[in-house]
Amino acid sequence: MKKTQLKKQTAHLLFISIWIASCSFAGNAQNKISFATNPVVAHRGAWKKNNLPQNSVASLKQAIELKCTGSEFDVRMTADDILIINHDPEYNKLPVEKSNYKDLAAFKLSNGEKLPTLLEYLKAGIKNNNSTRLVCEIKPSEISKECGKAVAEKVVKLVHKLKADPLLVYISFDYDILKRIKEVDPKASTQYLGGGKSPEQLKADGINGADFHYSVFVEHPTWIEMAKKNTITLNAWTVNEAADMDWLISNNFGFITTNEPELLFERIKKSPTANGWILKWSDEFNYRGLPDSTKWIYDTEGNSSGWGNNEAQFYTVGKKENARVENGKLDITAIREDIDGHSYSSARLNSKADWQFGRVEVRAKLPAGVGTWPAIWMMPGGWSYKDGNWPAIGEIDILEHVGYNLNVVHASAHSKDYQWQKGTQRTAVITVPGATENFHNYILEWTSEVMNICVDDSCYFTYKNEGLGESKWPYNKPFYLILNLAVGGVWGNVKGIEEAAFPQILEFEYVRVYQKN
Ligand code: MG
Asked: Is 285 within the bounds of a domain?
C-alpha cells in the first residue's frame, strides 16, 4: 500500500515539476510573485460566504480569487505517512494519526471534494497564483513532540520539491516545530500562534512573526510597536468583527486572519489608513482603573467660576466614580452630590499631547438626561482657561449635545470673528438617531485648508480657510483634545436639570488621532 501511495506521489511530483518548468512561477524575473498588499488572510480558505467546506481546495481557490494576501490551512499526517489538510485530530470520527489515508478519504468533504492531501493542496495553491501566500499551520502531533517535528520536516521538503517555498508561511502553536522548520530551511517564514512570547523573544529565537489571538494584542498593546521595531510580522486571529478589524487595520497589522475576508476587504476600503492616515496617538481604554495618566490630565481650572457658562458641575481629580476605565471603555459620570458648593460632580479630561492637523476619531455614546452637556472638543496647545483670550485663540468643537434636545449633535469652530457670543460661529447640526443608545464615531479631519466634521460616514460640517487671517482661521497650530460632561450651564440648563435622571454617563470606546506624513 505504501509503495502505491509513494508511486502516486512521485507521479504528482513529476507533473508539478513539469508544470512549474513551463510556467516558471518562481525564479523567473518576468513572472515574479507580487503578493497582494492587503492584510487579508482567509482562515482555512475563504469558505464561509459560499458555504464551502473549511480547508477544502475550493476554499483555497476562492481565497486566491479574492486576491487575499494569504490563505491559511491545517496540516496533519496519517498513519501511513500521507500529509493531509484537516483541522481536527479526527476526520469523520476517525483519528487522523491512527488511520490510513484511504480509510479517511472514503469520506468526501461536504462539497463532494476528496479529502485533500498536502500535495494536491499545494498544487492547487501554485496554480494561477502569484498574489496569495499559503499560510500553512502544522498541527502538533498527538503521538509525540518528535513526531510533530518530523511532520514539519516532511512538509518543508515537499514544499521545496515543488519549488513553492516563496509562497509559504509556516505557523504553529508548537514553538519547536517552528524552530525545526528554521533548521531545515533558514529562509522559511515562520509565525508563532501561541501568544505567550513577546516580539523581542521571537526575534531572539529567529521566528519571523507574531500570529496571536487578537486579545493578546489588546492585553499587550506595547507589543505592537515592539514587533514593528524588531521587524516581526504582526498577524492576529481569528478576527470576524468589524470593530476588531478596524482596530487592527488602524495599527497597520501586516496580516489579519479571518473567517470573513469579504467583510475585512470592506473595512480596509473604509479605513482611515486607506486614505493615507497614520495612527499617531490613541487610547483604546483596554485597561482598568483611572484614565491613563501618561495620556490625560484632569482639568479643574474653571470650577470656581462655573467655566464662564454658569455650569453646575464640579470637576474632580482622580475620582473613579467620575472617570474610570473598565470593560474596554472610559466612562465619565456626572453624579448628583453636594461637592464644594456645587450640586454635581463630573470630570473633564485633557489630552497631554497636542496635534497640528490630522484626523481625530472618538467613538462615544452620549447621556440622555435633561441638563447634560457633553462635549468632545479641542483647544490650542498650552492654552488654559485663565488665559482669558477665548475665543480669539480658536476652538474646535467636534461634538456638543444637550440632553433636552436628544440626538441632535452640533459641530462648531470659534474664532475672534466667528464666535458663539456674537452668534457668528461656524456651526452645523446633524440628527444622529440613537446617539444616546449606541456608540458612534465623531470625527474631525483638519488640514491647513479646511476642517470637516463627521458622524460615522456622514460629514455635515465644513469650514474652509478663507485666507483672511488669524481672526477667522486661528487653526494653523497644535490643539489638544478635551472630553467632558458638563451639567447645566447657559446651554445645558435651557430646560432645567432633571435631578432624578442622574447619575448620567458619557462613554468612550476609543480615541484615535491620525496624521499624514
Ligand atoms: Mg489553523
From this structure: no
- Out of 361, 400, 445, 507, the active site residue is 400
What residues have their beta carbon closer than 5 A to ion ligand 1? 74, 137
Tell me if 40 sits within 8 A of 268, measured CB to CB. yes
Is the pTM of the predicted complex or chain greater than 0.85?
Answer: yes
Angle made by CA atoms 183, 188, 191, in degrees to the nearest 5: 100
Of 50, 208, 73, nearest to 132 (Cα)? Answer: 73
What is the enclosing helix (H) or strand (E) of 372?
A: strand 372-380
Q: How many Å apart are CA 443 and CA 388, to the nearest integer?
A: 28
Q: Is 400 a catalytic residue?
A: yes
Collapse the DSSP code of 95 into the 3-class scheme (helix H, G, I; strand E, B; otherwise coil) and give the result: strand
Judge if 109 and 219 occupy the same domain: yes
Written as nine digits, the cell of 154 is 516532511
Q: Where among 271, 304, 326 does a domain terminate?
A: 271
In the chain, DSSP finds a helix count (H) and a strand count (E) of 12, 28
Q: How confident is the model at residue 424 (pLDDT cuts 50, 70, 90)?
A: confident
Q: Which residue has the cell 498527538?
A: 142
| Model pLDDT, residue 5 | 45
Catalytic residue among 72, 137, 260, 395: 395
- One domain for residues 344 and 260: no
Q: What is the pLDDT of residues 457-505, one digit of tens each?
A: 999 999 999 999 999 999 999 999 999 999 999 999 999 999 999 999 9
Task: Determine the Cα–Cα distance for residues 470 and 486; give it in Å rounded to an integer.
Answer: 29
Q: pLDDT of 292-312, one tens digit each?
A: 999 999 999 999 998 988 999
User: Residue 401 sits in which domain range?
Assistant: 296-515
- Centre of ligand 1 from the C-alpha of residue 224, in Å: 22
Q: How much distance in Å is there from the Cα of 298 to the middle of ligand 1?
A: 46
Active site residue 113: no
